[in-house]
From TrEMBL:
Subcellular location: Endoplasmic reticulum membrane
Obligatory cofactor(s): FAD
Catalytic activity: hypotaurine + NADPH + O2 + H(+) = taurine + NADP(+) + H2O; N,N-dimethylaniline + NADPH + O2 + H(+) = N,N-dimethylaniline N-oxide + NADP(+) + H2O; hypotaurine + NADH + O2 + H(+) = taurine + NAD(+) + H2O; trimethylamine + NADPH + O2 = trimethylamine N-oxide + NADP(+) + H2O
Transmembrane helix among keywords: yes
Spans traversing the lipid bilayer: 508-527
Top EC class for this record: oxidoreductase
Protein name: Flavin-containing monooxygenase 1
GO MF term (any one): NADP binding
Source lineage: Eukaryota, Metazoa, Chordata, Craniata, Vertebrata
Family: Belongs to the FMO family.
Membrane topology: Single-pass membrane protein
GO CC aspect terms: endoplasmic reticulum membrane
Keywords: Endoplasmic reticulum, FAD, Flavoprotein, Membrane, Monooxygenase, NADP, Oxidoreductase, Transmembrane, Transmembrane helix
Gene source species: Ploceus nigricollis
Amino acid sequence: RVAVVGAGVTGLAATKCCLAEGLEPTCFEQSQDIGGLWRYTEHIEAGRPSLYPSVISNTSKEMSAFSDFPFPEHFPVFLPNALLLDYLRRYAERFSLREHITFGTTVVSIRKQPDFATTGQWNVVTEAGGKQTSHVFDAVMVCSGSFSEPSLPLQCFPGIERFRGQYFHSRQYKHPDVFQGKRVLVVGMGNSGVDIAVEASRVAAKVTISTTRGAWLLSRVFERGYPWDMILNTRFMSLIKTNLPGPLSWWLINYKVNQWFNHENYGLQPENSWLVREPLLNDDLPSYILTGRITIRPGVKEFKDSSVLFHNCPEEEPIDIVVFCTGYTISFPFLEESVVRVENKHASLYKYVFPTHLQKPTLAVLGLIKPFGAIMPVVEMQARWVSRVFKGLCQLPPQSVMEKEVNEKKKNQIQWFGLTFDEVLKTEWLVYLDTLASFIGAKPSVLGLLCTDPWLALTIFFGPCSPYQYRLGGPGRWEGARQAILTQWDRVLKPTRTRVPAGSSSSFPSLLTLVGFLLLLAAVIFGF
């Protein structure tokens, strides 16, 4: 019996993967419906993520799909939140997940049973309708997400206590009406911050974004009009990034992100451009900077009564409203700190999933990761691995080996990413997926396929690393995986070729035949 905490994207994947392995999941959801982050509500609910109605996915539908359940072909390439929720409902219906979800039930505490050392069991206390109930489970999957508790470090902003205007965290934002005719300051330059700044600039008198570090900016519409992640997240590109010498790799990243526009000319160049930064996705910001709707400023030095002073800027700037886009705090109030300890927004988890010190590997945290790509295939792969560990089909390394890797990874993250906010949760998307897939025997063999199905092998290596690749073989093999891979570009073009009849797949795959075998030879040399 497995307890699953939360029925958002991660909880649904976890429940489905438990069922696939013959386990008995019970998913506890404190609200009355599935969807988690992607279920929009006009009012902010305590303990639940909150999003604004204009939110659109930053990753394309083909790269975001669960590995055995493609999005409908008529869905747009990037999904408005309502359509993504529709997809999750279809997923829950297709795999009969709702009957395993207990709605309106909050998990109050999760504690080890007295005989945990031998049984690995957990005592789970839930509350529904004011009544608490105690359950015993053989294992637990924590799928509660990390977008419920806003981080608002006001102590880092001198003078905020005397600021007479309005200020709030981005979690409270719903509609741009509040900015009508106002002078707006957005503090922080994550995806939400840029989205809110763009929306505010359409009605506000003036909008300023304050960013200490800057950021790389990508458009959803990438080279030749194709989705950014279907061009950048390929096995070939990953091979280049991970095998090139450091300086050359960073030059390539700089070159790629500056092809759209020169970040330095727009005040966006990251402070330490050699550090890996999660790129922002926004299609409007450069033009809004060009037309004066949005101004980019450095970090806030001090707030005054009705103005703000920025670092390296002598003049005060008058403002009426401040939106703090300062991220979220990661916490697990239902868990003892000895089970999962969070420091600097970092939990010491093996492969971002398993606590390293438990006598029995019967508790896992899913979704606590920031991949450079779609999150849905990642949490699904985590769930596939975890369910097989719970079942005893996959073994974890000894505790000392896991702790050593966690500590080494943390050092590397500080070196590559810089230890600020949730940077330590970031990881290379494809490498991570392949690692977990290899644990369960689901990593596709490009070289093996080259002998049996060469066109599929070339498509997998040079084309997008869509999640269906991880259903070609191994446990949970899906008969439709090959067809889904070979028709992925058809589903991308279907909703856009609406004026003339849609032809076959894009011309992109035809490029494979020109350079395919030469580049695949390089893959063999590198031992990919």
